[in-house]
Amino acid sequence: MIVLGLETSCDETSAAVLSGDHRILGHVILSQDVHEVYGGVVPELAARAHLQKVDAVVARALEQAGMRLRDVDVIGVTVGPGLIGALLVGVSWAKAAAYALDRPWVPVHHMEAHLFAPSLENAEAEPPFVALLVSGGHTLLLHVPAWGEYRLLGQTRDDAAGEAFDKVAKLLGLKYPGGPEIERTAAMGDPKRHRLPRPMLARNQLPDDDEYYDFSFSGLKTAVVELVGRLSDEGVLDAERPHVAAAFQAAAIDVLASKTLRAVEQTGCERVLLGGGVSANRALRTEIAARLGEGRLFYSSPRLALDNGAMIARAARFRFDRGEIGGLDGSADAVLPFPGLVAPTPAG
Ligand code: KG4
Ligand code: ZN
Predict the structure, then answer these.
(1) What span, in angstroms and rounded, lies between the C-alpha atoms of 82 and 231?
(2) Mean pLDDT throughout 59-70?
(3) 342 — pLDDT class (breaks 50, 70, 90)
(4) How far is the CA of 24 from the centre of ligand 1 (A)?
(5) DSSP secondary-structure letter at 72?
(6) Which of 33, 79, 210, 324 has its CA 20 to 30 A from that of 177?
(7) Which segments of 268-333 does DSSP mark as H helices, in order?
(8) Ligand 1 within 6 A of CB of 80
């Protein structure tokens, strides 16, 4: 059973070939560089770049695997969430190939795929676990008792975690994508020199409910705006930049780690999985590992933590095994908003 996975939801064009036992036989991730000068992803440019590169990216992944397109048994593709023009390129490609080859195609939810990424490198990264999914567009805290069963504990009320890293990086005059830049700059700073708020962390900021896990990052961002404005007026921003990056990173990580650990306590589930681009952040991994204890934290290498086709292929295989295949009608929408997700019932 050979699965081809295709990812074009944002600014990575990626394809992977996965063997029947989930080994990565070929994998190409092409990060678009057209967005750098704009300091963020420009949807129209993303779609065009996918269109220009998708054939070559798939061809190269197949070549690495030593295969032809007709050797593929199943084609999995991200159908959402993501930029619609960008998604359309991958979905149209997958549907056309499936039709031409007379093979099934499988619609994949991008965030479910992030959950599967660590299992490609570590056979123990299987449920049950508490999952913290932190990407450029989402911040989700889930309890995952089994694959396909996702209990939503909390999510962001405004900016996503990665979005906060990107916006703060921009404020500090750092490049896009901001996450890795913040991490690099923060390593040279003192996180205690400036004190930034930890939104929705203190008990008195929460509803009277222990099981309260929602996140908010826009207040933290505003605090950075004010701090940067003041330091800039004083003419000391250049010298203070590493300290501001460190203070922001520490605040964001404190919130993410604390809520994750609270979920561990409340669910009694002592294993944690990190997924999404922000999970590439070493300080985040170290902090959660330290609070959790040995052998309980799972995450992937940075290559698989960021958007990639291998995780799409793996999630497609899971859905395919459950008999969930796409049609040539509107069935792609069936996996949205999130397959198997159960939201909490409102308290009181
Ligand atoms: O999962 P991903 O590749 O794409 C989405 O699904 O959104 O995540 C991209 C996000 C960006 O916001 C990027 O700044 C962030 O992940 N990111 C990081 C790091 N590497 C990437 N954030 C913090 N630290 C990092 N090392
Ligand atoms: Zn992603």
Answers:
(1) 36
(2) 98
(3) confident
(4) 22
(5) -
(6) 79
(7) 282-292, 302-305, 309-321
(8) no
Mean pLDDT, range 211-234, rounded to an integer: 94
List pLDDT tens digits, range 263-275. 999 999 999 999 9
Round to whole Å and give the CA distance between 231 and 184.
Answer: 20
- Which amino acid is residue 180, in one-letter code? P
CA distance 298 to 300: 7
Instruction: List, as ranges, residues with CB under 5 A of the ion ligand 2.
Output: 135, 307
Q: Which residue's CA is minimally distant from atom 13 of ligand 1?
A: 179
The residue nearest atom 19 of ligand 1, judged by CA position, is 179
b/e burial code for range 85-119 (CB count within 10 A of at least 16 → b): bbbbbbbebbbebbeeeebbbbbbbbbbbbbbbbb
Q: From residue 6, give the alpha-carbon distance in Å to each of 23, 87, 146, 176.
A: 16, 10, 24, 24
Answer for the pair 249, 186: CB distance below 8 angstroms, yes or no. Answer: yes
CA 135 – ligand 2 centroid, Å? 6
Give the ligand 1 atom nearest the CA of 137: 7
Q: Which numbered atom of ligand 1 lies nearest the CA of 249? A: 23
Rounded distance between C-alpha atoms, residue 40 and residue 174, angstroms: 12
Q: What is the mean pLDDT of the chain?
A: 94
Q: If you measure from the C-alpha of residue 329 to the centroid of ligand 2, how many angstroms do you get, rounded to a whole number?
A: 26
**CB-ligand 1 contact for 11 (6 Å cutoff):** no
C-alpha 12/C-alpha 271 separation (Å) is: 30
Q: Whose alpha carbon is nearest atom 14 of ligand 1?
A: 179
- 321-328, Cβ contacts within 8 angstroms, sequence gap of 24 or more: 322/148, 324/106, 324/107, 325/74, 325/104, 325/105, 325/106, 326/79, 326/95, 326/98, 326/104, 326/105, 326/106, 326/107, 328/95, 328/99
For range 34-56, the mean pLDDT: 95
Task: Measure 276 CA to ligand 1 centroid, in angstroms.
Answer: 7
